[in-house]
């Protein structure tokens, strides 16, 4: 393959086109569920847990009418599940933010838009969204200089220009490359996307859920990969597969902190209450443990025991080590308008 027959681009531009361009992967009718299984699709227990989280935030806000914004809403499955599981008396204003067209038959209570709503009071929830915000990839060359990785439509790669400017500063702070051949995904666009999402809240809680890593434990060769029809495949930016990479959620949290503090005024702490926890821990706090029902229940209530056993199996999948339980939740409170989270 020669330069004349190949369009070389950085991974950020190539991924943007492959996922969201004409006939892009995420705009196809089957949606993400046609290719991989998320926590939302694994069990209705996940939506029920989000409903409980929403109810807690509503109580802290002192209201029975609350917003839920689902960023990267897929086909609206999470919002539909939360509306079904929401406790009586809680009025939920459900907002889907998604670049695909609104699916037919979606609950009329769910609004659908490409852009974030403004002035949200409640919960902004981004489940496996940031990992699909396109990023450039850098690799240290033989002299240790970080260079942009360029990619052709067939997935062939080559090293391009040295990383410079804001991207170089991001690498130096969040993901330094120390040895030739080491790679990193430059998470600056994700930081900016998260800061915008946090900024859409006037008061409440912003939550991002993704496979993630933190400073001091970055994977030395990056995490860029593809998924098609439920299987991991090489990342090829031709629109036939998902292209994803784990998220430096600690960098996202730092980018969102001053925005969250700004909602409450300059006197607010920039990291008040912000947490990074595993999905196992987050769901445990919301009542999802995976514990089996007492065996005695099988004698006193056989049908109830079978239902509880099935639910325990679903909960175990959501919290499993080496699987969905290894997701990281970024919990970033946004104080404001009388809301002071514990």
Describe what you observe in this structure.
Helix 4 (77-85) links the parallel strand 2 and strand 3. A seven-stranded mixed β-sheet has the order 4-3-2-5-10-15-14, with helices on both faces. Helix 3 (44-61) crosses helix 4 and helix 6 (188-199) runs parallel beside helix 7. The protein has 342 residues and is of the alpha/beta class. The chain is globular, with a radius of gyration of 21 Å. The protein has ten helices and 15 strands. The chain is 32% helix and 23% strand.
Report the sheet-strand fraction: 15-25%
Given as residue ranges, the uncertain stretches (5+ residues, pLDDT < 50) are 1-5, 264-270
Strand order of the largest sheet: 4-3-2-5-10-15-14
Following the backbone from N to C, one meets helices and strands in this order, namely EHHHEHEEEEEEHEHEEEEHEHHHE
Average residue pLDDT: 89
Give the overall shape: globular
Total number of beta strands = 15
* Spatial gap, N to C terminus: 58 Å
Instruction: Report Rg.
Output: 21 Å
User: What share of residues is helical?
Assistant: 25-40%
| SS element count, helices | 10
Q: State the secondary-structure class.
A: alpha/beta
Short description:
The protein contains ten helices and 15 strands. By secondary structure, the protein is of the alpha/beta class. A hairpin with a 2-residue loop joins strand 11 and strand 12.
